[in-house]
Automatic annotation (TrEMBL):
Organism: Capillimicrobium parvum
Pfam families: GrpE
Record's compositionally biased regions (Gly residues): 121-135
Organism lineage: Bacteria, Bacillati, Actinomycetota, Thermoleophilia, Solirubrobacterales
Family: Belongs to the GrpE family.
Compartments where found: Cytoplasm
The protein's assembly and partners: Homodimer.
Role of this protein: Participates actively in the response to hyperosmotic and heat shock by preventing the aggregation of stress-denatured proteins, in association with DnaK and GrpE. It is the nucleotide exchange factor for DnaK and may function as a thermosensor. Unfolded proteins bind initially to DnaJ; upon interaction with the DnaJ-bound protein, DnaK hydrolyzes its bound ATP, resulting in the formation of a stable complex. GrpE releases ADP from DnaK; ATP binding to DnaK triggers the release of the substrate protein, thus completing the reaction cycle.
Main localization of the protein described in the UniProt heading: cytoplasm
Protein name (database record): Protein GrpE
GO MF, one annotated term: adenyl-nucleotide exchange factor activity
Gene this protein is translated from: grpE
Length: 215
């Protein structure tokens, strides 16, 4: 009967130890479950962040493409407007250039006539004989010159400039050969005379110069 209390104590200790182990196992299980749940939450948050980042990148790429498309459209619209303006200017210029040519021919003829009148029929000074007529002709020449200068200035303001390639090498992109003939002292392919000057619009040829070329 002496061993009975010891047996009871051992049983109690065993029961306490079993309860402790069970509690420890339960706590460990709860901890593992909590860790797993926390890991799942973190994984879900990470996936959501990645999805948002991907969506942000997609929106950013879309915005960049839209901006690039708009910039290309703006540049294309500007180029188209400039090209249309240049075509309009060139069309008007081509219609005006013959009138300018006529003015220049009239001016050259009037100046030549003035010089002939001033020299007189026998080379003398005939100004005192035709003073009134000479004055009128001088005013007419001055008027033609003024109109010619105003027209040239108006063309220059919109980018149209004349060019006279005498002495240059013949360029079929800029010159139209009216005659090709041997010319003493001139290298073959050189422009030796300009029948009609050419015109450029902002560097582009709108009328080639008509020239005589050395053979």
């Amino acid at each position: 009967m002496v061993d009975q209390p010891r047996d009871i104590a051992e049983q109690r200790d065993a029961a306490v130890q079993a309860d402790a182990e069970e509690a420890s196992a339960a706590a460990a299980a709860d901890a593992r479950q909590a860790e797993e749940e926390a890991a799942q939450v973190v994984e879900q948050d990470l996936e959501e962040l990645q999805a948002r980042a991907a969506q942000r990148d997609e929106y950013l790429a879309l915005a960049q493409r839209t901006q690039a498309d708009f910039e290309n459209f703006r540049k294309r619209a500007t180029r188209d407007a400039q090209a249309a303006e240049a075509r309009g200017i060139a069309k008007v210029a081509r219609e005006l250039l013959p009138a300018l040519d006529n003015l220049e021919r009239a001016l050259a003829a009037a100046e030549a006539e003035e010089m002939g009148t001033a020299a007189g029929p026998n080379g003398g000074d005939a100004g005192h004989v035709h003073a009134g007529g000479g004055q009128t002709e001088h005013h007419l020449t001055a008027g033609i010159r003024l109109v010619q200068q105003d027209l040239v200035a108006a063309l220059e303001r919109v980018g149209i400039e004349p060019f006279s390639p005498k002495g240059e090498t013949f360029d079929p992109n800029e010159h139209e050969a009216m005659v090709q003939q041997p010319v003493e002292g001139a290298e073959s392919g050189t422009v030796v005379e300009v029948y009609q000057q050419g015109y450029r619009l902002n560097g582009s040829i709108i009328r080639p110069a008509r020239v005589v070329v050395a053979a």
